[in-house]
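Human: If only I could read backbone structure tokens as easily as an amino acid sequence. Underneath my words sits a plain record pairing an amino acid chain with its backbone structure tokens. Take your time, and here it is.
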Amino acid sequence: MRTLNLVGCGRVGKTLGHLWHQHETLQIQDVLTTTPESAQAAVAFIGAGHAVESLAQMRPADLWLMAVPDRQIAESAREMAQALAGMAPATVFHASGALSSAVLAPLGERGWQTASAHCILSFAAPAAAVQQFAGTPCGLEGNVSVREALRPIFAAIGAACFTVEADKKVLYHAAAVFGTNFLPVLQALAEDLWRDSGVPPELLPRLRASLLRNAVDNVLALGPAGALTGPAARGDIALVQHQGQAVSQWDPAAGEAYRSLSELALRLAREGSIRPD
């Protein structure tokens, strides 16, 4: 069984590490995080591995997953290239959706094989993500041979792998942001507007549950265009403009978002797509 070292082990690293160990796909070896305590906690969640306190303590491994925040990947790659200069090159990949494997260049220049693998799943809680992972799409980018080597280890834990070109990764990740990250923002905005317009606070959880559930069910059953409702779907431009002005007076940024989203909703209603071919 091939070995895996984890550099950084937050929600994504814990989830993947646990699944690879659970499915006996990879042998989890050394785990390095920001503190010894968090490394021990990661090892406990994964159910395998050895917590270490520095790169110098990490043993050679077949695969290295750099599961640190995006802003730390470049610096982590430089630190690894320096600290592991005497180690035989291996395969290293990161889990960012927006960055390509080019950010691992300091290691690539030393002969390491580089790639990126991004799973389109909300990793808000590792325990939940483990249960939800089966069937998750996973975008692979980087050296062809590395992509093909990563494909079976992700497939083994239930991922549906596909290739993403390096120059498309920012757009690819932006799609995930639109599809998941903005939903809590929009819901929070709606609830703030309801509170300020007099909706009793005790009714907000009921509104949240019913409207979100209905919207998701409709999108799943009918697709985005078929599920679209509201003034933009009806082509009621006058109401869209009136509401946009009212929201702008309430909060300028929210008003700008309302106008932009309404413009896209009108396009979807007319053409069945935000950006038709």
The chain has a mean pLDDT of 95. The longest helix spans residues 169-196. The beta strands are 3-7, 27-32, 50-52, 63-66, 91-94, 113-119, 137-142, 160-163.
